[in-house]
Amino acid sequence: MTAATKYIAHQPDAQGYIDYSEHENQLWQQLYQRQVTNMPGRACPAYLNGLDALGMSIDRIPQLPDIDKVLLAATGWKTAAVPALISFGRFFELLANKEFPVATFIRTKEEFDYLQEPDIFHEIFGHCPLLTNPSFANFSHMYGQLGLAATKEQRVFLARLYWFTIEFGLVQAKDEPLQIYGGGILSSPGETMYALSDKPERKPFDLLDVLRTPYRIDIMQPIYYVIENIDYLDEIARMDIMSMVTQAQQLGLFAPKFEPKTKAS
After folding, report:
1. What Å distances lie between residue 169 and 123, 149, 189, 195, 229, CA to CA?
2. What is the superkingdom listed in this entry's lineage (predicted)?
């Protein structure tokens, strides 16, 4: 079942506000309280600073105009309410305009632990705190501009860069503990614990390797890439990423570190 049939995004009013039901607000409260306790010591400081700056509601789904006020003041970004699924082209267009897409529905209780489609908890709790950080915000903007100009084939490789940084990136400074900055991990209690455990493989960030690494969206990640600090995203943004995409296309993908997805799964 696709997100388009399973979840229905809410339409904001003229002021950008959404009237969520009490049940939906209760789901947010449960998700927030469950995951926020996992953040200290595991989430990177830039994320925790952003979470504090946003001051989002604990017991009600935050309203996007309230999030926008903080983001605009910090880095010039704002959110954009979108349906459950949007095209690659629309996604890149929004990022290139410093607008972060937020699907305006919240997951069901049955999918608390894992959700294939990004919901408002994933987007607001997982990603928006770091959009207050200049390096993260600049990298996201650059990524949108690159993707907007890329071909369909190039976008497939660029998706891996986003996946292993913005969604599932880890950070570890010298002599410091391993921490999380990827929103896909930060919004998932299970993956928060798993990513920092001894189960997955972790490798230092290498752009060409990242572009050649396959992934699946419906499993815990078998491999994560680690940057030294959040400011390293500025360095990645200065790399000749599209030249590396061409190299990755020529070299091909690494053998996947996971089983192929069956038709039944």
Report:
1. 15, 24, 15, 10, 11
2. Bacteria
Question: How close are the terminal C-alpha atoms of the chain, in Å?
Answer: 12
H/E stretch holding 227: strand 223-227
Tell me, what amino acid is at 23? Answer: H
Residue among 157, 131, 128 nearest 230 (CA): 131
Those residues whose C-beta lies under 8 Å from the C-beta of residue 65, and which sit 6 or more positions away, are: 15, 16, 17
Residues 250, 208, 238, 92, CA torsion sign: positive
> Measuring CA to CA, which residue among 198, 196, 141, 132 is closest to residue 170?
196
What does residue 53 show for φ and ψ, rounded to 5 degrees? -65, -40
Contact, 127 vs 100, CB < 8 A?
yes
